[in-house]
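Morning F.,

Quick status update on the modeling queue. The single chain you submitted on Monday has been processed. Sequence for confirmation:
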Amino acid sequence: MINQVYRFFITNKHTMKKSFVRISFLAVATAVLFACNKSNDGANISKPLTVVGQAISSDTLPLKDASGNAIPLKGTMLSGKTYHIMSNVSVNAGDTLYLQPGVTVLVHGNGKQGSSPMFLVNGVIISDGTKEKPNTFTVYETASTPKSNNTYLSDVANDPAYKGYWSGFQGTPTCNLMAFRWTHIEYTGGPYGANSTLFSAEPGDPTPTIYMNVNPSSPYGKLIVEDSWLFGSLDDCIGKCQHVYVSLMRNTLSKLGGTGGEGINLKNDVYGDMAYNFCYGIATNGLKTAGIDGSSTIVNIYNNTLVNCGFRQKKATRNGSINTETNAGGYVFNNIIVNCKQGLRISYLSEKGRPSDTLNTLYGNNLTYIGSTVKDATGNSPLMLYIEPKQFTKKQAYDVNGYVNGPDSSNGTNLGSNVIDTTKYSPVFKSYDVMANAKGTSYLYSVIPTGADFHLGAGSPALNTGVYKGGSGTNAIPGKSKAILLNKYGFPMTLLSNTNGLDAAIITPPNKDMGAFPSDGTGNQHTY
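Structure tokens below.
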């Protein structure tokens, strides 16, 4: 039987305003049964695909007008089709580009200025892939633009993953929604061109994979990236987003940032949740949040798993897993960090950042494992740290790591020490040896091993030690009565719709287990 709610997107031709209309099961079922009775052909009835505006039938884009100018995109890319992007494409303000499940988009780019196409989004883009039919944005492979493979373990100079063949999705101040569900996005980071000033960048600067910076006098934009695969970028992947609500859930991020760059870098006036993401081999931090002086960012960071992050970034004070700085806060719980340059950092000071919003920060129940006792290049410090001293971060009561809190200095930072023991604190992944994968140069590898399974095995200290709604004791979500912003926005947040609309987020709440792959199967759904 059909038990879905069907979604249709209707455009009012006079006002150009969009609205969603939901038709109930009863009405749809009645129509279906009537049709079946009339035809009596016994045909199977399947869910109709959503169509927004007109179908895009041409497979080579953008189309050109009589003067040779690119015609902006709007309407629906169709399931099962492959589209070729030959140069920059744009979506006008008030228009929507929608991708049905099962669309492949091949971008013809080469990583050079002027020939690394971007999606310039002034309006809305929605890639509505599904688990059964994911969507893909990738480079059109040629002899001169080859793709990466598993032999490029840590060869940044030659790995095609870091060539920045095309320029991703760049939202202008009028872009109010980007949504990517079950979508592969690969080989981004191409250089900005003549339109760089729209993004406060210089020509030649690498583009982030996804960028939104909504006009602060407008309602907040919405950035939804869920159940997707983000692979291969020259610099930041989701980069420097501002004035947006976010749901960044259950994604896999790997081979992001050549010699610098974050997996996710939320820059200012951002509110929402980052959870159940798996980050592997990111140049700097897998997950980073920041505000600016006088303006906050409050993002909950929970139930993520990060492995082998932070080592391609050689600049000091950049951390290497999860980082908050400059007026950023939120709930930070239930994360697993393995063989990264450093564990969670609630920043006091970094090269670019100022202090985190410690009043509106709560953190704990995080696990950090270190599998190497090797010293860094200076010979004075361990290559990997549970916690960086002289920042605000302390070991909390239900953390699992080898940091020993020291005295607090007058500025509130902690002067603790890292007591490294490679035999302790392993999360006991089902099929990934954390100690073996820290030996030699293995911690530098950015290729997720085929068949690796990051679910928790029997005896894992990450089982049943996460905080969750209704939990008690170890599992209780702590409170902070004076934290106005934490109490205002909640854990998780409810800023984005959790219904069946095209702009809906599917937010998975915190789990009783730590990490992105909890034992009840509700977290990250990807396999490797």
